[in-house]
């Protein structure tokens, strides 16, 4: 009995200490999402949980609400970033998610709009390496904690038993919890603070996956069974200048095989390719053809007002654990 009491007290202490950097993010909805005071004056939350980016207030542990300024977001990793001025709330103690093991005990922390801390406990149920969201976001580690994401828990913290915040929780397929690891969060914050936006490559094409006929695979000695067909080309875009045509089927991007639109989006999300000439291998008229294209930079404006989401959660929206969708980039 004393051991259970000791464990219970230890967990309560972790919730109290780590929870001091967890806030509520109020965006005019009935139930606020949660957020994390990640760095001094920097608040992160789940991008998908927000209906808007303006007139946002942050509720801290004392129940005080403070105005927040929108800095930017990355919908492909489900991270939105806000700034607080002259805040005195503690900054999160960030840990290393790569130290987690399946079976480790973890806590999910959230905060209500009234300022109350909320907690859920569970185990790390699944871990794997880097993965890609449906809209091409590169996420450094797959983490699935076996915790209930109650209303308002999205955007809150995943905390290990040492009291370190190892990532931000978000809703996964069929309502299961997923955690965006700290390394991904830091990368997004760094880019938003440096540039005010997330730089992404741009070709100017609409795409959808297509199955390659068996006889074509044999004739062209292709190892892939699928490619990406071009269904739209924007005028004066990099793809247009390169000579890409409707009906072309993309099978390699810069020497890397592509099987669906997510592959292309993930490669374009690498900002190192912006302004550089890369080779697209396509199938046109039953033959392989190489085209050189200079990757542009997406000019999409991602501030001020909320864009329509592509879907809900990971099941058919902006992030996923598998699946395909149409894409344009």
User: How can the largest sheet be summarized?
Assistant: 7 strands, antiparallel
Mean pLDDT: 89
- Any idea what the shape is? elongated
Radius of gyration: 22 Å
What portion of residues is helical?
Answer: 10-25%
Which class of secondary structure composition applies to the elements?
alpha+beta
Show unreliable segments.
301-305, 307-326
Question: SSE string, helix = H, strand = E?
Answer: HEEEEEEEEEEEEEEHEEHEHEEHEEEE
Count the DSSP helices. Answer: 5
Distance linking N and C termini: 59 Å
Report the portion of residues in β strands.
35-45%
Q: How many DSSP E strands?
A: 23
Q: What this model shows, in words?
A:
This protein is 16% helix and 37% strand. The model is unreliable at 301-305 and 307-326 (pLDDT under 50). It is an alpha+beta fold and 329 residues long.
In a few lines, what is going on in this structure?
The chain has 329 residues and is α+β, with helices and mostly antiparallel strands. The protein has helices at 2-19, 182-195, 214-220, 238-242, 261-268, and strands at residues 22-26, 33-39, 42-46, 56-59, 65-74, 79-83, 105-111, 117-128, 131-132, 138-139, 142-145, 157-160, 165-171, 177-181, 201-202, 205-211, 226-233, 249-253, 256-257, 277-284, 287-294, 296-297, 327-328. The protein has 5 helices and 23 strands.
């Amino acid at each position: 009995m004393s051991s259970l009491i000791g464990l219970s007290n230890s967990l309560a202490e972790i919730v109290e200490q780590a929870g001091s950097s967890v806030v509520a993010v109020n965006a005019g909805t009935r139930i606020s999402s949660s957020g994390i005071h990640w760095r001094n004056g920097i608040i992160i939350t789940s991008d998908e949980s927000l209906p808007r980016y303006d007139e946002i207030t942050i509720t801290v542990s004392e129940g005080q609400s403070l105005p927040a300024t929108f800095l930017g977001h990355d919908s492909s990793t489900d991270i939105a970033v806000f700034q607080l001025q002259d805040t005195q709330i503690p900054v999160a103690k960030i840990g290393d998610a790569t130290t987690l093991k399946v079976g480790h005990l973890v806590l999910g922390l959230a905060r209500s709009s009234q300022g109350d801390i909320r907690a859920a406990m569970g185990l790390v149920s699944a871990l794997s390496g880097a993965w890609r969201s449906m809209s091409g976001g590169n996420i450094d580690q797959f983490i699935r904690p076996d915790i209930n994401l109650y209303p308002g828990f999205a955007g809150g913290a995943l905390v290990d038993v040492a009291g370190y915040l190892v990532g931000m929780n978000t809703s996964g397929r069929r309502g299961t919890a997923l955690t965006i690891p700290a390394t991904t969060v830091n990368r997004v914050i760094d880019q938003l603070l440096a540039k005010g936006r997330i730089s992404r490559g741009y070709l100017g094409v609409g795409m959808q996956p297509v199955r390659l006929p068996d006889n074509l695979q044999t004739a062209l000695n292709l190892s892939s069974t699928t490619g990406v067909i071009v269904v739209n080309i924007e005028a004066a875009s990099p793809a247009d200048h390169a000579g890409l045509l409707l009906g072309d089927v993309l099978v390699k991007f810069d020497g890397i095989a592509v099987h669906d639109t997510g592959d292309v989006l993930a490669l374009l999300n690498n900002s190192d390719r912006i302004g550089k000439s890369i080779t697209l291998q396509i199938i046109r008229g039953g033959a392989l053809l190489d085209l050189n294209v200079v990757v542009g930079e997406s000019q999409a404006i991602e501030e001020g007002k909320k864009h329509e989401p592509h879907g809900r959660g990971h099941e058919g929206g902006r992030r996923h654990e598998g699946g395909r969708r149409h894409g344009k980039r």
